[in-house]
TrEMBL record:
Family statement drawn from the similarity comment of this UniProt entry: Belongs to the HAD-like hydrolase superfamily. NagD family.
Alphabetically ordered keywords of this record: Hydrolase, Magnesium, Metal-binding
Species this protein is from: Sporosarcina oncorhynchi
Cofactor names: Mg(2+)
GO terms assigned for molecular function: hydrolase activity
Domain of life of the organism encoding this protein: Bacteria
Name this protein carries in UniProt: TIGR01457 family HAD-type hydrolase
Length: 253
């Protein structure tokens, strides 16, 4: 455990499920903190701000700070700032994405954008989809916070951001650039805080997002059972995670 200075944890399915903390993860995080390592929390959820995620974790008995949160919204904003300095953005999304773009001093517009950024929006409308569709066809770059097509709820699966991104891709004939997992942009921005790749590890329950992000970035990974991807499915994959555990408590120094 002491090898890693940047321990990157997926949230939903790894640290908590919905509004309920996973006890083994909570104990693992406290063990890390006691040893002097503050983990990072990485999520494709673009709807909340870093401060809101911090408050959510605090309510679950996990102490952290906003600078340890990396969302797909934060990564999208950083990507726009890094690659397209001075560009204007038209967005579909919620408070988390708007706050991230404003934090990077990116100009938001409702007309003639240089970039369209699409994040989860639970108040999506035909008008919003039409406006960004026309903007993309008019030459705006098309960026998606993530392409998770479905979100799990207590009642079953509901449309995720990827469903709306797919609709826009079908309409415009243009594929969106994705910044969320399984792409490795979020890990890249964490590395920029001053870590070597051999000092980083990505932990998650979803092979196709969490583990793939780590593999693509070239860092060690831990797959934890009990979430999205079954252990049997992971064992059949060509690219294996560095470690596999039933729970976080099985990882020892």
């Amino acid at each position: 455990m002491h090898r890693y200075k940047a321990v990157c944890l997926d949230l939903d399915g790894t640290v908590y499920k919905g509004q309920e903390v996973i006890k083994d993860a909570q104990l693992f995080i406290r063990k890390l903190q006691k040893a002097g390592t503050e983990p990072y929390y990485i999520t494709n959820n673009s709807s909340l701000t870093a401060e809101q995620f911090t408050a959510k974790l605090s309510a679950m008995g996990i102490s952290t700070s906003p600078d340890r949160i990396m969302t797909s919204a934060i990564a999208a904003a950083k990507y726009c700032k890094e690659k397209y300095e001075g560009a204007s953005v038209m967005m579909i999304g919620e408070e988390g994405l708007e706050a991230a773009l404003k934090f990077e001093d990116i100009a938001l517009t409702t007309t003639n954008p240089d970039i369209v950024v699409v994040g989860i929006d639970r108040h999506i409308s035909y008008e919003k989809l039409s406006k960004v569709s026309l903007a993309i066809q008019g030459g705006a770059r098309f960026i998606a916070t993530n392409k998770d097509v479905a979100l799990p709820t207590e009642d079953g699966l509901v449309p995720g951001n990827g469903s709306f991104v797919k609709l826009l891709e079908t309409t415009t004939g243009i594929e969106a650039l994705t910044v969320g997992k399984p792409e490795s942009h979020m890990l890249h921005f964490i590395q920029e805080k001053g870590y070597r790749k051999d000092e980083m590890i990505m932990i998650g329950d979803n092979y196709d997002t969490d583990i793939q992000a780590g593999i693509r970035f070239g860092i060690d990974t831990i797959y934890v059972e009990g979430g999205v991807t079954s252990a049997d499915s992971v064992l059949k994959k060509q690219d294996q995670p560095t470690f596999m555990y039933k729970t976080m408590s099985d990882w020892h120094a």
